[in-house]
Amino acid sequence: MNGDPKAGKVALRAIGLRKNFGDLVAVDGIDLEARAGECLGVLGPNGAGKTTTIEMLEGLLVQDAGRIEVLGRTWGADGDAIRQRIGVQLQETQFLDKLSCYELLRLFGSFYDKRDGEDDVLARIGLTDKRDVHVSKLSGGQKQRLAIGCALLHRPRLLFLDEPTTGLDPQARRRVWEIIEDFKVGGGSVVLTTHYMEEAERLADDLLIIDHGKVIASGAPETIIATLHAENVVEFTPLRPGATDAGGERVPREWEDAFRALDGVDAVLIDGASVRMTASRTQVAIASLFACLDERELGLVDLRTHRATLEDVFLSLTGKHLRDD
User: Fold this and answer.
1) Which domains does the chain carry?
2) Is 89 in a helix, a strand, or coil?
3) Interhelix angle for 170-185 vs 140-152, to 10°?
4) What CA–CA distance (Å, rounded) separates 11 from 99?
5) CB atoms near residue 177 (< 10 Å)
6) For 196-242, how does the pLDDT look when each residue is reduced to its tens digit (9 = 90+)?
7) For position 247, what pLDDT does the model report?
8) d(Cα 207, Cα 40) in Å, to the nearest integer?
9) Is 269 exposed, middle or buried (0-12, 13-18, 19+ CB in 10 A)?
10) Is 158 exposed, middle or buried (CB count within 10 Å of its CB: 0-12, 13-18, 19+)?
11) What angle, 0 to 180 degrees and rounded to 10, lies between the N-to-C axes of helices 101-109 and 140-152?
12) Coil, strand or helix: which one is 70?
């Protein structure tokens, strides 16, 4: 492999990636690929090993075992050449507040052999009107776009984005999405970590779900969702006889067993006082549920149904919501 990959060719490959911190196995044999013109999304609960994985791919950590190829090169042999051709946006970036946006881009551009013009980058990230404004005066969304601009200004072929829209309002988040999509259209590759399932489904061509240092699911978002084999997901909060609210108590085991045995139900996951059922036959499952509740004289706080989503698969695989600590 050599040079810039053409569309569809592998831009990033890791094989058998491992990293230990003392007795803790943080990353345990991860394989992954990112292709030119595509986005690889990396999801996992906190402590799953995704940050360690990304830092090894970026050259910030050295792996204990395995091989990493970035644009056909390896960190050990060609680290300086790789740094000239990748862009990195960290989860938190501390800028020099008294520099203007233009001055900051000029400073970052001085680190590279070639770069786009600062004004071109400002236009690309939608900050032309902030050209001479000090960084300290920018909103959170504007600072995030500026961080992405710093990662883009040297025309990288591979872009690492670590939770690029955390804390942004919906409008600012969508502006960042547009920047990422434009980068992909130009043939660039993206490795994205995110805590937003909607973001992962929209931007990622392929996904890795990591837990306990291992890949537990991979593939296109729609392929991963299909592994749930569910027509719909039914969520509800049952009530004890005579109770007026759920009281925050975990659903008793005997109720859980009864819900799991219902016709049309494939799987049951208890989330505190609430129940999440995946159903291959939704109408049958709901009818069976009401019959079960009547038989046990149980009430309902709420009941909702929706098509299976990436969030449902994630919760089924890990037992956690993406933002769980």
Assistant:
1) 10-226 (3.40.50.300), 232-307 (3.30.70)
2) strand
3) 10
4) 34
5) 16
6) 888 999 999 999 999 999 999 999 999 998 887 777 899 999 988 87
7) 65
8) 6
9) middle
10) buried
11) 30
12) strand
pTM of the model: 0.82
User: Residue 305's beta-bridge partner residues?
Assistant: 234
Average pLDDT score, the chain: 90
Mapping DSSP to helix (H, G, I), strand (E, B) and coil, where does residue 143 land? helix
Q: Which amino acid is present at 141?
A: G
* Cα–Cα distance for residue pair 239/63, rounded to 1 Å: 50
Cα distance from N-terminal residue to C-terminal residue, the chain: 40
- Kindly give the pairing relationship between strand 299-306 and strand 10-21: unpaired
Other Cβ atoms less than 10 A from the Cβ of 119: the count is 12
Query: Tokens for 199?
Result: 């973001």
Number of helices (H) and strands (E) in the chain: give both, helices first: 11, 13
Which long-range contacts does 319-325 make (Cβ < 8 Å, 24+ apart)?
Answer: 319/269, 320/45, 322/43, 322/45, 322/195, 322/197, 323/195, 324/45, 324/46, 325/46
Spatial CA neighbour of 158 closest among 194, 124, 190? 190
Would you say 315 and 211 are in contact if contact means Cβ atoms under 8 Å apart?
A: no
Between CA 304 and CA 313, with CA 309 as vertex, the angle to 5 degrees is: 105
Whether 204 contacts 39, CB under 8 Å: yes
> What is the DSSP code (8-state) at residue 306?
E
Q: What is the pLDDT of residues 162-178, one digit of tens each?
A: 999 888 888 888 988 99
What number is the average pLDDT over the span 251-266?
92
Per the DSSP assignment, residues forming a β-bridge with 233 are: 278, 306
The tokens of 292 are what?
């079960």
